[in-house]
Specification:
Length: 358
Amino acid sequence: MSQKSNIKVLGAGISGLTAAINLAKSGYNVEVFEKRADCGQRFHGDMQGIENWTKKNDVIQELKEMNIETNFDCTPFSNVTVTNTKIDEKFDFDRPLFYLVKRGDSQNSLDQGLKKQALSAGVKIYFNSIFKPDEADIVATGPNPARLTVADKGIIFKTKMANTAIAIVNDEFAHKGYSYLLVVDGYACLCSCVFNETETLTDCFNKTKTYFVKKYNLEITNAKSVGGVGYFTINNVWQKEKSRYVGEAAGLQDFLAGFGMRTAFRSGYLAAKSIIDNCNYSDLVEKEYRKYLKAGIVNRYLWEHIKIGDHLRTIKGISILFHSVNNLRSAYNFNLGQRFKYRKAFDYIDKKYSTRIT
């Protein structure tokens, strides 16, 4: 494909705009079509973490290498607390475990920051616009609504509580998932994240809110509802004819904890690279993420089994895993132990989530 060719991107989320920015900076005429009225309107001020443990390099450095600036609020967290509501474990890492960003259409959100970068690079964004995926060069439409595997429900609010990051691992508070409280400079996000059995979500969230209010004398002011969904698949289709699928549209998601922003950035970048360098996108993304996705299946299998009826053991297991960032990284590299368990884990996941992830 020659320079100055017209490229159409469907979806103005992280992966779509990352691809668009890189293509525009390489001389392509890029048009992005977004079904909503503005970037970020899938979200409502939620705080989310860009994980910083699956690779040796810091994710902020990786963003720079992918031509993405941090022109949005981005707060590093090296201290986290994990609890089963009876036992608390505090962890202090020598580098940020994740970077908290705000999602939505507010001024300092990640989504608006990417929008500004795209427009500055010369990308044309058409809002309230849709067309068929097979007409797009890059499809970045987010999770498949027919095959959702994870959902979260929560609130954002103002509080006097100091900056903090606390996660609850207890099925009564988040079925097969986790609940969390995040606070940055008086802005807070409290959510429950459940896997598979989404009908438990409201009850889990109510219990989570009650726990945090009582445990920390949490003051909640100007609360607003937030929530979202996620999608993971074990049968990824990276490309159909000319259309390259990126981010959650391709089922790229951490099946253990649901962190997907880093993979969204990267897959968008790889889609752009495949066009710029005239190389095979499927080969690029397979090389980058096949082990990661297989590790996610094993991690999800182990998580669901270690949690059954024994939250104390869960905390002890997390203590071992969280001993260092290196241990966390190993858990996403499809290590030898994961390879031994993969077949059993795959069969379990395929059966339990068959209507959702195939």
